[in-house]
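Translate structure to sequence.
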């Protein structure tokens, strides 16, 4: 369009032609002829949305910065839901495990606390602990060596054929695990393959047995079987030499009587006469208590 034609067009519209001052003309950008000015792309948002996951490690192998400022940082930052949201449970650090209770704590536990504490111990391959059963205020405490397969399955000491025989023997002298006898073992977890408990297993469960004796305060402990007798009396003598007389518990003022294990009597029924003599001695001891 020529300058004259442009002026006539603007005059007809009631407009005045505007021109840039010569001193600014050199600094002004020029648009390509016959083209509309290029449109500016909108600016990206200040922050890109972040996925709701924990920050990934940097390429250098160092951990990325924490999503939130440390507690001692006094800078105030507006919350950003996409950044400040807690990481999923799988990405959070695991809680510190509770410190295991020490054996010294056992000396202050009551019956229920002691049983609950035992359940938290290393099962050493067993299914469950076998704490004990019977009258906790009884005068007679019967102690075997360790749970077998049946005891491990049920969580009760002296069950199966041997347990039934023991119940019949006790019934013959007016005793019962339901009324006036408490039954437990030196070891509270079944040893693998029903073997005799070793020294480490005895030591691990010994504080529980000692606390049971303290809580119960019996008049007589009956050691059932060779392992129980030798362990309680701290002796290496055979069961044949230990049975038949009262012994003194090495760690307290308490009588200990040794007798055969019911499982042994099932294999050797000829020894039942000796076991009956032991039972009568238990009955006499109870009567005189």
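Result:
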């Amino acid at each position: 369009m020529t300058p004259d034609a442009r002026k006539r067009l603007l005059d007809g519209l009631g407009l005045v032609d505007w021109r840039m001052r010569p001193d600014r003309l050199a600094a002004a950008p020029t648009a390509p002829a016959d083209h509309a000015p290029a449109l500016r792309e909108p600016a990206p948002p200040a922050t890109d949305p972040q996925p709701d996951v924990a920050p990934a490690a940097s390429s250098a192998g160092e951990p990325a910065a924490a999503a939130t400022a440390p507690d001692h940082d006094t800078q105030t930052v507006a919350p950003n839901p996409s950044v400040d949201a807690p990481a999923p449970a799988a990405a959070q650090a695991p809680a510190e495990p509770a410190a295991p209770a020490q054996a010294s704590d056992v000396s202050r536990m009551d019956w229920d606390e002691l049983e609950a504490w035992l359940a938290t111990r290393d099962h050493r391959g067993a299914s469950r602990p076998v704490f004990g059963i019977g009258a906790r205020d009884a005068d007679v405490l019967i102690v075997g060596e360790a749970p077998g397969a049946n005891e491990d399955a049920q969580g009760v000491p002296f069950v199966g054929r041997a347990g039934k025989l023991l119940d019949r023997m006790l019934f013959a002298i007016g005793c019962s695990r339901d009324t006036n006898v408490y039954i437990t073992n030196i070891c509270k977890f079944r040893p693998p393959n029903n073997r005799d408990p070793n020294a480490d297993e005895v030591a691990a469960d010994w504080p529980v047995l000692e606390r049971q004796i303290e809580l119960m305060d019996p008049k007589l402990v009956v050691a059932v079987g060779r392992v129980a007798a030798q362990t309680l009396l701290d002796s290496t003598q055979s069961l044949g030499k230990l049975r038949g007389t009262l012994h003194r518990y090495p760690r307290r003022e308490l009588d200990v009587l040794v007798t055969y294990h019911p499982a042994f009597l099932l294999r050797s029924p000829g020894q039942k006469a000796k076991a009956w003599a032991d039972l009568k001695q238990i009955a006499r001891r109870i009567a005189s208590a």
